[in-house]
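Exam review. A common question shows you a sequence with its structure tokens and asks you to describe the fold in words. Practice with the pair below. Do the first one on your own.
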Amino acid sequence: MKLPKITETAQPVRRRYDDACGTAHALDLIGERWALLVMRELMLGPKRFSDIRADLPGISANVLTQRLEGLEGAGLLVRRKLPPPTSAQVYELSLWGYEAEPIVKSLGRWAARSPAHDPTLPLSATSLMLSFRTMFDPARAQGIDARVGFRVGTETFAGRIAGGRFDVGRGDTAGADIVFAGEPTMVAAAVYGGQPIDALEAAGVLSVEGDRALAERFTTLFPLPPKAAPPA
């Protein structure tokens, strides 16, 4: 009797460092390619699979599935189903997973000092908002008490500057003192690239609503760290 052929799908071998150092174990957890960026995309709340993939255009569906499964297995994220009428499955960081935000922010600030960093590459809306949380300078924001809205790509965010702090998350822009609207890279061009708001608006790639003077000042509140000096 001829036995049926059984085809098994080979699972990727997860490499580990076999090192007791906490840093080594951190890389065991999030050191796989794309893993930390998947976590970054969930830092402002849950997302559907399709939304995560859209914000990470270089990742394949297969690799994203593997990373989500790996992060879930490590206890860093959970899957849940939204109630009707949506009934969509979303991925969300666990409480422990959200604790990685300072790691993401510190790593981003450190890497921004690299002379090889290319700010013209694609940027997700979540990445932009996290960069604002990272680069915000309280000293430059003295005396400001304002609400800032963003319509970035297909997402909306609501921010508040008060008491030398800047908090931002997904939310409605209604009631904001200023609202920036445009693709993430265009908002970044105004804030980090030194591009005048007027010029970006004239080019049709950015719009700003509300208090004009406040908008101009807002773009100065997020200074980038100096570039690292080349080796002597």
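Now try the second one, then compare your answer with the model answer below.
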Amino acid sequence: MTHSIPIRRDGRHLATALYLAAGNVPVLPLRAGKGPFGNCPDCADNACGGRPNMKTPGTCRCPQPCHAWAAATTAPATLQSPAWAKAWRQAHAVAYHPGGAGLTVVDLDNADAVTWARETLPATRTVPTTRGEHWIYRGAMRSVNGVRDGVDIKSSMSYARWLGPGAGTMTDLPEAVRALAIMESSTAREAPQAIAMPARAGDGECPHRMPAYLDRGIAMAEQRITEARSAVHTTVYRTFLAVLSAHGRCGCLTDTHIARLFTAAQAKGEGPRHCADAWANARTALGM
């Protein structure tokens, strides 16, 4: 980048954010501990469907930087707005949304992971971290944590801490990195996380119509998730909400039905814990 951004009285973090935004890199402030800022009042207790740790957003469109990667922006007016002023004053670091910038970060969290990357992955731009390195590739993909010991993939629906421009020439995202996500997803789909359901009513058959009604509803829910091209998290949450609204109180849902929904969500990049949180949030929203 060759942009020159003046230092503002808000501090060096906002200046860094404006510099990155000028290069079309979506950014947001981070509090101490590398965490995003908490929910705004409109989304208290994740009423919008976000995950409890605030690292994944729900369905709202808040002006405040309260929903992690979804709050990342390149708009100078938003970054310098009164709604963000307090966050920048309290910020301890700047984060960016790699997927929003068309990038993927391979986060290597220890020396063994760095050694593995040097032996396995094509060279690209690298940035030193506290315990390892960030390897940055050109190209976006879904984000997956724990693809192997000490290795996370941060791209779409994720954020990475800005630690400087790094060194080396950025290269295209290799198939070796994409394959790591496929392998992790396949393992996760083999054992979807079970969720405790309300007690079944009667003999477990749906009282609304014939049993085929439930099967057709689950199939339609799977299709809705599978066909999502954007806002996957929101689609998963709303689909879970719709299924529970129709069948959550009659006791007809089984672990097999839930596993089908979780498998469809995981195939779109949602992790087992994320599925569990979205399911729990949907139940809470319905008063279950």
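Model answer, second protein: DSSP finds nine helices and nine strands in the chain. The CA atoms of residues 42 and 62 lie 8 Å apart. Full marks require stating both points clearly.
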